[in-house]
UniProtKB/TrEMBL annotation:
Keywords: NADP. SUPFAM superfamilies: ALDH-like. One of its GO terms (molecular function) is acyl-CoA dehydrogenase activity. One of its GO terms (biological process) is bioluminescence. This is Acyl-CoA reductase. It comes from the Bacteria. The keyword NADP applies.
Length: 333
């Protein structure tokens, strides 16, 4: 398949996903939930919406035109994460658009959804069966893209260092508040925090606020997410973290479904968001620079290279995890 054929097939996949019939959608929801209790129908549908956005024909054409695609058919291993639905799809898409083979090691937490995508794609374009392979072990490959935690990244670096590689570690996202936020800003920020239960690297887990910031407007603005505690796993995390803070006498704010705790660390537990006060923009810039290797994206109203409130979980196809250009890497193999 040449690049035009690949784009046509992937665009057709996007159209198919956009028009899923209710029986197929319901079956997919059930399979996803059976595979991973965090994968609610709402979150699966949100992730599907993101994939459909990637697969717009004009976007794929614009994206691909930026790279010297050579159809080199290299064997690229992909170690997928499973923290949120379809999280490994962008790597798969990048490998296919770049004219290479995808040799996929699925996460045990997200097998049903990725297999569904591959099945539908190969039905649309059977030629992709020669480019997509699911593997238990990755060997005889030419390059590797591996996503995991700080701990698993050390394993990846040990075993895959001899190959050209992209190895991703833990990252999280943060938001900058000034005190001038509107109710709509907080409504968007609530999505940035709670979508996927806070499990994604693009979820906001840290707030930077001015000295003496009043959180009342923030709590009022996120109140529409109070039903999140109806999910038993989230509720269990909330109850556990709350009990730890109460037993240890650790200061925190609590609105009944989210806790705020002042902390310099970037990555917070589920049901908790950390906050840190800043005295000036220069001080904030310094803090962000010190933590740049842990930050996936910044949500703010007016800050360089930031995302608007509510947009953290909706990257474009040319937005890359960890700021590493996957397509540049693949087209240079």
């Amino acid at each position: 398949m040449d690049i035009k054929e690949r784009i046509a097939a992937l665009s057709a996949l996007g159209q198919y996903l956009e028009n899923l019939n209710e029986n197929t959608r319901t079956k997919l929801h059930l399979q996803a939930r059976a595979n991973n209790n965090w994968f609610t129908p709402e979150n699966v549908d949100t992730a599907l919406k993101g994939i459909i956005g990637y697969l717009q024909k004009d976007k794929l054409q614009e994206w691909a035109s930026q790279y010297p695609i050579k159809d080199q058919n290299k064997k690229v291993g992909i170690v997928m994460a499973g923290n949120i639905p379809f999280v490994g799809f962008h790597d798969l898409l990048s490998v296919l658009i770049s004219g290479n083979q995808a040799h996929i090691k699925l996460s045990s937490q997200d097998t049903a959804l990725i297999k569904f995508i591959i099945t539908e794609l190969t039905e649309i374009a059977p030629s992709f069966k020669e480019q997509v392979f699911i593997k238990e072990r990755l060997k005889d490959i030419d390059a590797i893209i591996a996503t995991g935690s700080d701990n698993t990244s050390r394993y990846f670096e040990y075993y895959f260092s001899k190959y050209p590689h992209i190895i991703r570690k833990n990252r999280t996202s943060c938001a900058i508040l000034t005190g001038n936020e509107t109710s709509e800003d907080f409504k968007g920020l609530a999505e940035d925090i709670f979508l996927y239960f806070g499990l994604g690297c693009r979820n906001v887990s840290k707030l930077f606020v001015p000295q003496g910031y009043d959180f009342n407007s923030f709590f009022e603005g996120i109140q529409h997410y109070q039903g999140i505690t109806h999910h038993h796993k989230y509720s269990n995390n909330y109850d556990y973290n709350k009990s730890i803070y109460l037993v240890n006498g650790e200061a925190h704010f609590d609105n009944g479904f989210l806790m705020l705790r002042e902390e310099k660390q970037m990555v917070s537990p589920i049901s908790v968001v950390y906050y840190e006060q800043y005295g000036s923009e220069d001080e904030l810039k310094s803090i962000l620079d010190q933590n740049k290797e842990k930050i996936q994206c910044i949500v703010a109203d007016n800050w360089p290279n930031s995302q608007p409130f509510g947009n953290a979980q909706y990257p474009e196809v040319w937005d890359y995890a960890d700021g590493v250009d996957t397509m540049k890497f693949l087209s240079g193999l």
